[in-house]
Amino acid sequence: MKRTRVALIGATGSIGTQTIEILCAAPDRFELVALAVGRESDASRALAAAHPSAHVVIGLEGGELSSRILDREPDLLVAAATGLVGIRATIDALDAGVAVAIANKEAVVAGGELVMGAARRAAARSGTNLLERLRPVDSEHSAIWQCLAGERPERVERLWLTASGGPFRTWDAPRIASARIDDALKHPTWKMGGKITVDSASLVNKGLEVIEAHRLFEMPMSRISILVHPQSLVHGAVSFTDGSMKAQIGAPDMRVPIGYALNYPQRSDHHVRAVNLADMRELTFEEPDLQRFPGLAVALAAGESGGAAPAVLIVADDVATSRFAAGVIPFGGIAALLRDASDRFAGRPAPESVEALRALSDEVRAFAEAWRPM
Ligand SMILES: NC(=O)c1ccc[n+]([C@@H]2O[C@H](COP(=O)([O-])OP(=O)(O)OC[C@H]3O[C@@H](n4cnc5c(N)ncnc54)[C@H](OP(=O)(O)O)[C@@H]3O)[C@@H](O)[C@H]2O)c1
Strand, helix or coil at 253? Predict the structure, then answer.
């Protein structure tokens, strides 16, 4: 059987290293042909030494990154950098007939129709469905994708995304507003990269995920709900028109959704330990509190308004989380910055090209970097 040629953007990151673990466990099925990282480091040198036949790409973005990756003629691209560095490569890969496993939610949220249009064209050309071409990796979206298997879209009533609630789930509003970076990095259930961990503490990540689900599953925002579920065992669910509901359950371990995307339509035999239902003393679910987590309210409003708003949100949040991590703005400043950037830029139409998205991103970035809390 021909091995799947895999290219990986973000190879040294949290998703990237877990992807490599899965690829290495099945050398008969996968061949790593290209790996891209942000900078030369001990980790990138170790990867290059361990995968001598893979082409190593360092510190490129846009068309340069995309052509270096696509030169290696992969069958599958795993997009696992943060931010917008891989958006051009994602679109170009889809246009070149390469399937994309997308961890990089920022590209889907900010890119909107640019990415989804490429996925639809790719699905139409190959006679497959959209999700086979643009495969969800985020655990909640993978859960929903698994629940949708074999179902008809018109019978789907609602999508449910769960959220752990993050480290500030039980904190009051003033304490959250003055939280420090060390507090924000103490995620109760998932071990992830720094940016997404801060986004999980503010719950902005969950807003991004609702927009991501709205795009990937072509479902109106009003039919996607969030449930705070601190045990992080139920990752997502779908309710159907006949009153039935399917949920996906598993340990909070990203190797499960990564493995599902890599092996689709098969399942991986990478043995992550299944959850023992008999050990589950308690599964709790509650609605998120938009008063204590105002960043989530801003993110959901951006998804509702569409146009440029989701892209503005992505860029403003990128700057806001970095400035918070550097100790320049307080935790409460993240939501305030997102609100002010949205008020200023979000009424614009959606960017019609990656170049227009870059130009918008430069403007929003300049505003967000100069922003001061009141
Ligand atoms: N971590 C999770 O469990 C998780 C779960 C769901 C979704 N996601 C999503 O997956 C994406 C990655 O998250 P993460 O937590 O894995 O991030 P991370 O640990 O911060 O890793 C980011 C990766 O991107 C690389 N990178 C930066 N600039 C690059 C460039 N120009 N070209 C190629 N690679 C570049 C970094 O390389 P250097 O190390 O060289 O800088 C690093 O390998 C994000 O969109 C996140 O929202 C993550």
Answer: coil
